[in-house]
Amino acid sequence: MRLSFPQLLARIGFSALAAIIGILFALPLIWFIFAPFNARAELGIAIPDPWTLQNFLTVFGNGFAMRGLLNSLIQSVGGVILVAAAATLAAYALSRSSIPGKSIVTYVLLLFSSVVSGTAAMVPIFLIVSSVGLMDTHIAVILVFAGGLLPTAMFILRDFIDGIPKTYEESAMVAGASPVQAFFDVALPVIRPGIVVVVVWAFVNIWGSFLIPFILLRSDDLMPSSVAIYSFYSEAGTPIVTLLAAYSLIYSLPVVALYLFVSWKFGFRFFGGIKA
Amino acid sequence: MASVEFQNVTKTFGTFNAVSDISFKVADGEFICLLGPSGCGKTTSLRMIAGLETPSSGKIMIGPDDVTHLHPKDRQISMVFQDYALYPHMNLADNIAYPLKVRGESVEKRHKRAKEVADVLKIGDLLNRLPSQISGGQQQRTSLARALVYPSRVYLFDEPLSNLDAKLRLEARGFLNHLQRDMGMTAVYVTHDQAEAMALATRIAVMDRGRIVQFAPPIEIYRRPATTFVANFVGNPPMNMIPVEGTIEGERLQLRAHGVLVRDLPISSGIKAALGKGAGLTLGVRPEHLSMGTINDVNMVSGKLFANENMGPEKLVTFERQDGGRVTARIFTDDAVETSENVAFTFDGAHATLFDAEGNRIPADGEMPL
């Protein structure tokens, strides 16, 4: 096919524009890959000369920051388990049972999802956690995250489960399975791709969150990475770019690893069952 | 095997009456088809036998037990679903053996049994495949194998063949018929395909809007449809229905309509009563009972040729009477149908079915049971 001159021009223009936008998005990532290995890294992009691991060695020597990674892991995994388990059971019930007004329940939950974990609710959350006596504990952070993420997780999963034919569990029950057996043997494996999506989404949310742990925690040895990263700022508040870059890279690795693991093991599928 | 009985069963969804006060009994070893258009309550009835729906009122018995409120798992029944409901994460062996797994059988034992059943159904060499890796016909047989793998009192089928293509459907239908003869199973089979019902059932329950219109052996449904609804639903193509004016001439009944003159029908008390009310009658004639004739025949239906379809062993000739009503004839001779505009057909008076103004069949006097 031959393009007319204006068409050709339009296509070149579009490609150039797309390339410029792409570069704008790529620049921070390129910085992110190079800076940690550069002993004199600044905010500009520079190819390390020479390449060095010195930044990482310094970061590994920072006990507070390293402890932060472990704390992030505890809070994220704890929150994810709670969210995934509770959301699966709740969404399954909402999808399969015949409670009157269940769709209203779902939409009210969705509405609240953005409120509960939001900044607006920080003061009441603080007061509740404080009066329950959970201040400065991992449990507090995990519970607040679970509460905040659950409605959306339920909403995602309910939609997913709605798309799975009821006949799976029905055939299991007719064949002699109790409802609990039918759920674990048949429904749960079919829902799993949906649960995986929720797990990844919840993990990324908790792993990257700053405000909630910052407010609910006091002790240094409970702070997650998102808070501990501030130990790479000088007392005047200016970032130590070299160490910050190295720590950021380490901090992002678990999320990348989770994505890779999930897409290798399950694939990101948003459908379930066999198409008839 | 066991019998199944419905006692005044009603099921409502909100304000909608899916099933209205139906009662029937399926004897031990009978193969019953619930036949009707979508929304007639046939699937709801089946699901109530399975325990997947609970009746709003009434009682359901399986054998001597009242199962109305029993959980499906405690009913000792099997069911084949329209979408097969094969578990996508299990291979065929585990799919077929699942009922044995929940019964606590050992792995060796249940895989051995699954293999036996799968061999009978000719899917024995696919046992390591996943359901997504086999064809639709094989999926259908897998779901059948899962229903047959354990001892069961009643076998339930929810349109099990409707997702198959025409050729496979015939094959599977023949197999089900063979299975029924072989096992003598009690079965309740839901379908909207009248040919399936005719081929498989020992008795057919024709349902319409939540009620059973007629519950009889296939041959009776076919020859003596209780209402115009049944007559329209059974037969392919369905029975021709022609509104007619009836008069009594001497000892015979005469029927007239546009393009229709029928002079040789016996009179019965039912016909006299229907004529006495002054309302019209409906003449029903099956397409296969019409043969080519002339306008001078004693029982004559005529009109303008509308369509002439050659089906191989037979022809479907459709013609339009003067008032626009269409009549279809199924002609089994090799004779070329006259391509002339006007065609006339004749039929034996014994093959005429008459319905009154309410759509109920008018029986002949002294009718013997079929």
UniProtKB/TrEMBL annotation, chain A:
Membrane topology: Multi-pass membrane protein
ABC transmembrane type-1 domain residues: 69-262
Keyword Membrane: yes
Localization (cell): Cell membrane
Regions that span the bilayer: 12-34, 73-95, 107-132, 138-157, 195-216, 236-262
Name by which UniProt lists this protein: ABC transporter permease
Keyword Amino-acid biosynthesis among UniProt keywords: no
UniProt record similarity statement: Belongs to the binding-protein-dependent transport system permease family.
Main location: membrane
GO BP, sorted A to Z: transmembrane transport
PROSITE patterns: ABC_TM1
One protein family per Pfam: BPD_transp_1
GO cellular component terms given for this protein: plasma membrane
UniProt keywords, alphabetically: Cell membrane, Membrane, Transmembrane, Transmembrane helix, Transport
UniProtKB/TrEMBL annotation, chain B:
Recorded GO CC terms: ATP-binding cassette (ABC) transporter complex, substrate-binding subunit-containing
PROSITE patterns xrefs: ABC_TRANSPORTER_2 (PS50893)
Locations listed in the record: Cell inner membrane
CDD domains tied to this protein: ABC_MalK_N
UniProt keyword annotations, A-Z: ATP-binding, Cell membrane, Membrane, Nucleotide-binding, Translocase, Transport
Segments forming domain ABC transporter: 4-234
GO molecular function: ABC-type transporter activity; ATP binding; ATP hydrolysis activity
Family recorded in the similarity comment: Belongs to the ABC transporter superfamily.
Name of the featured protein: ABC transporter
